[in-house]
Design brief:
3-stranded antiparallel β-sheet, globular, 14 strands, 25 helices, mainly alpha
C-alpha cells in the first residue's frame, strides 16, 4: 500500500512541477501556488500518501529530511537551473541516482544512468504504468508550461523514495513472522530475533529464489559453502541486535526501558534492524569489492584501468572464482573495451566493479553494489567549484592536485589536457560537470575509479538471473581463451609494451549527453555555429515531455537524460 501511495505522490509531484507548482506547502516560490492548493485537495488518497510516505510531522522524519538536504545540497548547487531556480525532471532523476549511490551504493531500478529513456519511457514511467496505469494515463494527457522542481521538492521526493526503497522489505519480514507462527504484535526474545534475522538475510540475499534460500537454510554447511563470507554476515546480524539493545539501554525512548530490561523485542525493532542493514550493507561488503579490484589491478600493468579478456579468464583458470562471466554477459554489462586493435578485447576494471554481476543484493526495486569510488571524486569537484559549468583550467588545476585511492598522484598528460579542451570547445569554452564527455574524461584521469560512461542503451544493469544461463563461461571456453592468448603473444611479442597515446584512448566517443537544460549556462546553439548542443527535456516520471532542442544535425538517439547530439570531431 505504501509503495502504491508513493507512486501517486511522485506522479502528482511530477505533474504539478510541470505546472510550476511546489511540492511542499511552506517552501514554495511567492509567485507560485502550492501543490495542494493547486489540486484543490481533491484526492483523499494523496492525503493518505503524504501521511504514510512523507510523515512530515514526525520529528524523526524531519531530522531525516535535514540529512537528505545536507547530502543533496552540493550536487544541487552544481546542477543547471532555470530562471525560477528550479531543475527539470531529468536533472532530478540524476540527483536522486547520485544520492542513493553516494550514501548507500544502491542503484534504484529505473534511475540507472545507462537506461535509455524517451518520451514513452522516462526512467521510472514503466513501473508507474504497471502499478497505477490509470494515473499514468491521466498524467500523459496534461501539457503545461514547465517550471520544474525546487530544492525542497527534490529533497521531499528523494526522502520519500528512500523511505519506500527500504520499507519494501517489511513484507518479507512479516512473511517470516507468519512462517514461524508469530504475530507481529508480540515481542520475541533476543535469541529468537537473532535466529529470525539470520533467516531473513538468506532470503534477502537470495532475491526471488525462495526454494534456493530454503535449501541453504536446511544445512549450515551449505550456507558456508554457497554464501561468500557467511560467518561474517551471520556475525553482522547478531551484532546488529546487540547494538540495538545497547542503544536502548543507553538512551531509551518512549516504551524502550521495559523492553530493554526484559530482553524482548517488537516487530518494529526487527524491522529497524532490517532497514539499517540494508542501508549499511554496501559498506560492510566493500572489503570484498576491494579484493576484486586489487586482483584486477595486479594484471593492469599499464595502469589503463583495463585487463585483457584472456588475462581475466586466466585468473579464473588459476582458481579466482569471481572472474567467470561470459564475454556476452560482460558486453551486456558494458564492462568490455573492444576498440583497441593493439590490445584486443579488454575488461574495464571500474565498469566491471560497478556492474550488476558484482551487486551483492538484487531486489525487485533496487541493487546494492560496490561503492562507486568516482562519486567521491566528482563530489570533491562539485564542492570545490560549486557551478554547473567550469573553465577547463580550473578543472585541470583542481584534479591535478588530487590522488587516487592508492595515494598515487594524478598524471594529467598532454592527451588529457587536449581532450578536456576539446570538451570545453564543444560547449563554448566551458565544461559541463555532469555531462557524458566530462564523465568520460574523468574515466581516463581515474581509470580504475571512474567507470567509462557508455551511451544510453549500449549497456544495462542486468543481473545474472535476468541474463540467463549464458552468463557464465564454461571451463572449455576458458581453456580456449587462454590458449589463444598464448598464441597471440608468440605472434606479437611487443604486446606488453606501453600503449601509444592514440591507442590508449581508442574508446573515446564525442557523443555528449547532459542531465538538464544548460541554456542559461552555455551559449545557445544558434549563437555558435561550431557547437552541436544537446537540448530539450526528457520526460518527467509520468508527466508529459516536450523535447525542446535545436541543433544543426539532429540525432534520433535518446540518452538517459535526454536527446544525444554529437560534439565536433
Amino acid at each position: 500500500r505504501i509503495f502504491f501511495h508513493f507512486l501517486v505522490v511522485l506522479s502528482q509531484a511530477a505533474n504539478f512541477a510541470a505546472n510550476g507548482e511546489g511540492f511542499l506547502v511552506g517552501h514554495r516560490s511567492p509567485r507560485q501556488p502550492s501543490l495542494l492548493a493547486g489540486m484543490g485537495m481533491q484526492s483523499a488518497e494523496l492525503q493518505a500518501a503524504l501521511n504514510d510516505v512523507i510523515a512530515c510531522s514526525s520529528g524523526k522524519e524531519r531530522a531525516h529530511r535535514e540529512t537528505v538536504k545536507d547530502a543533496v545540497l552540493p550536487i544541487w548547487r552544481s546542477m543547471p537551473k532555470n530562471s525560477y531556480d528550479r531543475v527539470e525532471w531529468k536533472s532530478l532523476r540524476y540527483i536522486a541516482h547520485r544520492y542513493f549511490m553516494q550514501r548507500f551504493a544502491v542503484m534504484v531500478r529505473g534511475l540507472e544512468p545507462i537506461r535509455q529513456v524517451n518520451m514513452s519511457h522516462a526512467g521510472g514511467a514503466e513501473i508507474l504504468s504497471e502499478q497505477v496505469p490509470m494515473v499514468a494515463k491521466q498524467l500523459l494527457n496534461v501539457s503545461n508550461e514547465q517550471h520544474g522542481f525546487a530544492f525542497d521538492d527534490a529533497v521531499a521526493i528523494i526522502a520519500a523514495l528512500e523511505h519506500v526503497v527500504f520499507d519494501t522489505e517489511r513484507g518479507e519480514l512479516e512473511a517470516l513472522y507468519r512462517k514461524r507462527g508469530w504475530d507481529t504484535r508480540q515481542s520475541v526474545s533476543s535469541l529468537d530475533l537473532q535466529m529470525l534475522l539470520r533467516e531473513y538475510i538468506v532470503y534477502w540475499m537470495s532475491a526471488d529464489d525462495v526454494e534456493g534460500a530454503q535449501y541453504l537454510l536446511s544445512d549450515e554447511r551449505l550456507l558456508n559453502e554457497h554464501i561468500p563470507h557467511w560467518k561474517l554476515i551471520s556475525m553482522l546480524m547478531r551484532g546488529s541486535v546487540k547494538t540495538m539493545e545497547f542503544a536502548k539501554r543507553r538512551r531509551p525512548g518512549a516504551g524502550d526501558a521495559a523492553v530493554a530490561f526484559s530482553g524482548r523485542h517488537s516487530f518494529e525493532d526487527a524491522f529497524s534492524i532490517v532497514k539499517e542493514v540494508g542501508k549499511s550493507f554496501a559498506s560492510f561488503w566493500e572489503p570484498q569489492c576491494q579484493d576484486i579490484k586489487q586482483s584486477l589491478a595486479v594484471m593492469d600493468t599499464m595502469h589503463t584501468g583495463r585487463v585483457t579478456l584472456a588475462d581475466f579468464y586466466g585468473a579464473n583458470k588459476e582458481g579466482e572464482w569471481r572472474f567467470g562471466e561470459s564475454e556476452a554477459y560482460l558486453r551486456e554489462l558494458g564492462a568490455l573495451d573492444e576498440s583497441s586493435p593493439w590490445r584486443g578485447v579488454q575488461v574495464i576494471i571500474s565498469n566491471y566493479l560497478q556492474a550488476a554481476s558484482n551487486c551483492i543484493i538484487s531486489r525487485q526495486n533496487y541493487l546494492i553494489c560496490c561503492v562507486n569510488e568516482c562519486e567521491g571524486i566528482l563530489g570533491d569537484i562539485e564542492a570545490a567549484l560549486g557551478v554547473p559549468v567550469a573553465e577547463p583550467e580550473a578543472i585541470l588545476q583542481l584534479v591535478g592536485n588530487m590522488t587516487t585511492d592508492d595515494d598515487d598522484p594524478i598524471l594529467l598528460d598532454g592527451a588529457l589536457h587536449t581532450q578536456l579542451m576539446r570538451v570545453a570547445s564543444a560547449h563554448g569554452g566551458k565544461v559541463p560537470l555532469h555531462g557524458r564527455l566530462f564523465a568520460q574524461w574523468l574515466h581516463y584521469a581515474f581509470p580504475r575509479e571512474c567507470a567509462f560512461p557508455h551511451k544510453a542503451g549500449a549497456a544495462s544493469a542486468t543481473t545474472p538471473s535476468e541474463f540467463g544461463d549464458g552468463y557464465v563461461i564454461s571451463p572449455d571456453e576458458v581453456e580456449q581463451r587462454v590458449a589463444e592468448s598464448v598464441i597471440q603473444q608468440d605472434l606479437n611479442p611487443d604486446a606488453s609494451a606501453p600503449p601509444p597515446v592514440a591507442d590508449w584512448m581508442t574508446q573515446w566517443s564525442e557523443d555528449e549527453d547532459l542531465p538538464g537544460d544548460y541554456s542559461l549556462q552555455l551559449r545557445a546553439p544558434w549563437d555558435t555555429d561550431h557547437l552541436a548542443v544537446l537540448g530539450g527535456a526528457a520526460a518527467a516520471a509520468a508527466s508529459v515531455v516536450g523535447l525542446l532542442w535545436a541543433t544543426a544535425g539532429r540525432s534520433d538517439e535518446i540518452g538517459p537524460y535526454g536527446p544525444v547530439a554529437s560534439a565536433p570531431t
